[in-house]
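lol ok so funny story. i was supposed to be doing the assay writeup but got distracted and ended up predicting the structure for this chain instead. priorities right. anyway since i did it might as well share w the group, maybe its usefull for someone
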Amino acid sequence: MHTLYGIKNCDSCKKARKWLEENGIAYQFHDFRTDGLTPAMLNDFAARADWNTLLNRSSTSWRQLSSEQQTGVTPEKAPQLMLNTPTLIKRPILDTDDKLVIGFKAGHYQTEL
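and the output, tada:
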């Protein structure tokens, strides 16, 4: 079974959930806010996808960071930022066991699934 990671009230997550349900694809939803985010989960994501792809620099959470926090983000610094503020992670993340599909576009899901 696939796992969809995100936040319940995120519009992209809502669209992804609707698409999966309409296409009869079984999944489990993991809400970063209520179910948490562990260093092990984030390390798994980072091992399977580039951290630059995982870090959502267009989010409200990113804009609320200080310029010091935004400057010089490295592979070592990015995970700590995302652990402290899970809304910095691009959403949704669909884990198919074989790969991670980051973000939601219906055409991309159709191709990947």
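The beta strands are 2-6, 27-31, 93-95, 100-102. The chain has one domain: 2-112.
back to the writeup now i swear
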